[in-house]
Structures are given as C-alpha cells and as structure tokens.
Amino acid sequence: MVETKSLGISKRAVWEAYRRVKENRGAAGVDHQSLEDFGQDLANNLYKLWNRLASGSYFPPPALMVEIPKAQGGMRTLGIPTVADF
Predict the structure, then answer these.
(1) Helix (H, G, I), strand (E, B) or coil at 78
(2) C-alpha angle with apex 30: 29 to 31, nearest 5 degrees?
(3) How confident is the model over 46-58, as pLDDT tens digits?
(4) Which residues, 6+ apart, have CB-to-CB distance to 74 below 8 Å?
C-alpha cells in the first residue's frame, strides 16, 4: 500500500522556492527568523514545511507590514512573509 499526501507538492518544489528566496536575500518576517537561522537545520525545516504543505495543514502566519516610499511620493505598505512562508 502506497501512502500519498493530499496535495501534490514535491520536495523539489519546496527546495526550489527556498533557493529563490535565498538568492533574493529574503528578510525576516514577524517571527524574526532569518535565512541564516532557518538554514541552521535546513533539511529538517524544509521537510517539516513540505509535510505541512502537502498534507494541507499549513496555514501561513501574518505578514510583517512595512511602509516604503513610493517613487512619486507618499508611502505604500509592503507585506513581508516569514522565511518559512516563502
């Protein structure tokens, strides 16, 4: 008997998403966990994330809201997700 997850999300897709965030030098979100901190136990963190995503039990935490200046003047709100929420 083969056990499958409820959603077809591959471990490779999770790894590639992490790789893209790292290349873009993603910032820490509301949990203040940096890419460096996440990478200390990378294999385990990516596995736990994949497991929750694939089983449908992952719910993203709130995004960190930051005000950034607009080119034409004024400000706009930017939402920064947590590292694990890439």
Answers:
(1) strand
(2) 90
(3) 999 999 999 989 8
(4) none
Q: Which of 65, 60, 86, 85 is nearest to 75 (CA)?
A: 65
pTM: 0.73
- 12, 19, 48, 68 from 54: Cα distances, Å: 12, 19, 10, 34
Beta strands (DSSP E) in 1-86 are 64-69, 75-80
CA–CA distances in Å: residue 24 to residues 2, 20, 27, 41, 51: 37, 6, 9, 20, 24
> Identity (one letter) of the amino acid at 26?
G
Distances (CA, A) of 1 to 4, 5, 55: 10, 13, 18
